[in-house]
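assembly run, all chains below
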Amino acid sequence: MKKSICVLLTLCICFFFATVSPYAATDPLPSWNNGPSKQAVIGFVAAVTTPGSLDFTAAEERIATFDSDGTLMAEQPIYFQFLYEIYRVKALAPGYPAWQTLQPFKAALEGDMSYLARTASQGEVDLTAGTEAGRSDEEIRADTAVWAAASRHPRFDRPVTDLVYQPMLELLSYLRANGFKTYVVTGTEIAFVRAWSEKTYGIPPEMIVGTSVKVRYLMRDGIGTVVYEPAGNFICNGEDKPTAIHYMIGRRPIAAFGNSDSDIPMLQYATSGKGRRLGLLVHHTDGRREWAYDRASPIGKLDKGFDEASQRGWVVVDMKKDWRVIFPFEKGTLR
Amino acid sequence: MKKSICVLLTLCICFFFATVSPYAATDPLPSWNNGPSKQAVIGFVAAVTTPGSLDFTAAEERIATFDSDGTLMAEQPIYFQFLYEIYRVKALAPGYPAWQTLQPFKAALEGDMSYLARTASQGEVDLTAGTEAGRSDEEIRADTAVWAAASRHPRFDRPVTDLVYQPMLELLSYLRANGFKTYVVTGTEIAFVRAWSEKTYGIPPEMIVGTSVKVRYLMRDGIGTVVYEPAGNFICNGEDKPTAIHYMIGRRPIAAFGNSDSDIPMLQYATSGKGRRLGLLVHHTDGRREWAYDRASPIGKLDKGFDEASQRGWVVVDMKKDWRVIFPFEKGTLR
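ok done. output:
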């Protein structure tokens, strides 16, 4: 009899810790290891959302901006938009013999990742302008969504959109649950990101700020249509991340998240405003689970960002130490 | 005894109609007279929001775009941004002697409304670029907000932002209560509108799409700052309303609202998509309470819009007949 009471009591305690314990139930960032990065994020959110706190910030001012490649999603061996553009260039190449010798089309046809990586957003916009001219934004997005679902990442052999960072998905949800508006501000072309951002990031098309190609409005078979032109419009990198935020959002963010030197101006812009601010850089330190790269990388180069981070008090996430899980598909094996 | 019962009964009936009657309690558009315009709007909202309806549209697709001048707010005797620019040009003129002979600055100094009206958005952007270069977006907005609060409209002798249309404010609230996202898509420069849009329209800065001046990001006294340059960037009128929607919103609206030929492409774009759509033009027909103008007006010219409206089934609001109240400040006298 006494034994069965003991068993019952143990079961009750287990049940309590598994389901009722305030820590287990309320940890908003379960894939983040406890440590200074996680505490800085949670401390910031608590400070700006607690009524009466000196740092309290009205909900409408809680704007958070996120770089995409390397911050919310992997960017190796090359920015994923290039994989889509390689598919497009190869499909269209028979009609464009000039591409055999014209860069960056030649590099796309040859799969020259090293050349393409160096062209960065300018290469992406040139390829988009060259391959999408004459198509509508709706056609491009529908095609991109089909491509993304069928794509296979060269290392992980899964759709590229599976390579989103689980800790950052938790951070996005946590911020939104605390009244933040979460925007993507990316060097990647907007239609490419909008094709899967809502499903993958929970961020709708109207909250994607990015690089764009010139478009034109026309009536096509009685339907008003926005059609891509063969020319770039805006490259959303470096100092043009804050200018894009001016054009498209119109408020200084109170939190900004990036992973490369190209994100420095956006983080400066966010964190040099008045009141409590958060800047965070993701440092790629895990060559086993993801990739390890920083100062010398042609993709996602992070060099001056380290100095700025220490001067300005930005959080630098060490992916290897700070993140218990990197990709959502790992979760089953790690828990 | 019988008489007092009668009185009591009458009081009860009055009380019921004044406070409990479903019609009085739920009319979302009390400043709209009953008629085909009001019924078209309510019928559209019911159709797209009723689960199981053939026309049901998921909340995330409920994007509604509104022109500002002449659609949400008066635009006579001239677009209100010109009144602000006249104030800026006069304040700065001592430092810019060339403006005495350089258009459109000369016209602003002379108060030549007729000249300024003809320059439209191009004139607004030239004046903004000329008067705001070197200032930050934050300085411009703070100054505009102070100016707007102190401004006196030449006819109504009140702040210009008082000249917002009460029926359109009700429409904005009604759409938002039904899950719509309401955007402004305007030919006016964005900082000017963002200075008062949240207070006046309930529309935050991040949902203002409009004409812009070139800006540059720089560090100023250690603070990351977006500063205006002396050049235009984008004019958001006519066929560039749909292109601006592509760049900044990334979804085809399901409802669009305008008042002039410059809004035709935006209404075409919205209403030629699949599924139930609403296009609405505000026709200025009330010379007594507001202004009466259309085909021949240099401001808010509405001419081809009538043909498009009848071909495409757009609602044309007759302000005189359809609107019980025009401005919020009338309400006290009319009720």
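Chain A has a mean pLDDT of 93.

Strands of chain A lie at 63-66, 181-189, 208-220, 223-234, 255-258, 278-285, 292-293, 315-318.

not gonna interpret more than that til we talk
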